[in-house]
Design a protein that fits this description.
By secondary structure, this protein is of the alpha/beta class. The chain has a single domain, classed as Alpha-Beta Barrel (TIM Barrel), CATH 3.20.20.70. The chain is about 25% helix and about 20% strand. The protein has an eight-stranded parallel β-barrel, surrounded by four helices. A two-stranded antiparallel ribbon has the order 9-10. Helix 6 runs parallel beside helix 7. The N terminus and C terminus are likely disordered.
Length: about 240
């Protein structure tokens, strides 16, 4: 069975580019590490270099989840997304339709997370259309011509009544300083952080990552954060089976 991380919201640090940082970030106690496979991103990592990052992550923390972030992958690139390349989850951050997600989930044989860029509350209703074809949602702020890592925030009041029937992650403008307020008002299953712990795109500040983990742990200990199961969900976020 997959490891159980308990009731706290999980932390994902996204956009790493160096194996040494992947190892160090995982060792600090985050539950997931994201590697960007979108060529237009300043945090892009080529397919040939991704396995080394995920291997280093596993050295830092064997239970840490490797997430490969892509956008609108064409069929000819699917062989770089399949199992056996170090990642355990594929996160779709483009304009993938419900039917495309359904097809990719079958072809890849891995858990899929679908990122939805939120322009307004109506986008939350649209996100629910993916509930039957992906394993989790990730909500990020909408910024023209940018898919993520912008530091822009979704207004918290839009999300206070968001209770989807599957696990969901919050991204966009999260920092160690802002985490306590977010966790007082929202109950996401996971928090995805990129620019909020960076010195430069793809260069993480390990002290800020440490502060992020500490802020989450303090909120949990104080009872101001906790996992509130979505209807029909049985765990904070579906995890692939661990290998023997």
């Amino acid at each position: 069975m997959a490891p159980d991380f308990g009731p706290q919201p999980r932390l994902k640090v996204c956009g790493l580019r160096q194996p040494a940082q992947a190892r160090a970030v995982a060792a600090l106690g985050v539950e997931a590490v994201g590697v960007i496979g979108v060529s237009t991103s300043p945090r892009y990592v080529a397919a040939a270099d991704r396995p080394a990052l995920f291997a280093a992550m596993a050295e830092g923390a064997p239970a840490c989840l490797g997430v490969l972030v892509v956008a609108d992958p064409p069929d000819e690139e699917l062989e770089t997304l399949v199992n056996g390349r170090g990642h355990a989850v594929v996160q779709l951050h483009g304009q993938e339709s419900v039917e495309r997600c359904r097809s990719l989930r079958q072809q890849l044989g891995l858990p899929l997370w679908k990122a939805v860029r939120v322009r307004g509350p109506h986008d939350l209703d649209a996100a629910l259309a993916y509930a039957q074809v992906v394993d989790a949602l990730l909500l990020d702020a909408w910024v023209p011509d940018q898919l993520g890592g912008t530091g822009h925030r979704i207004p918290i009041e839009w999300l206070e009544d968001f209770v989807p029937p599957l696990p969901w992650w919050l991204a966009g403008g999260l920092t160690p300083e802002r985490l306590p307020e977010v966790l007082q008002r929202l109950r996401p299953h996971g928090l995805d952080v990129s620019s909020g712990v960076e010195d430069a795109p793809g260069v993480k500040n390990l002290e800020r990552v440490r502060a992020l983990v500490a802020a989450r742990d303090r909120s949990v200990a104080a009872g101001t954060a906790g996992f509130s199961p979505s209807p029909g969900s049985t765990s904070p976020c579906p995890m692939p089976p661990s290998t023997p």
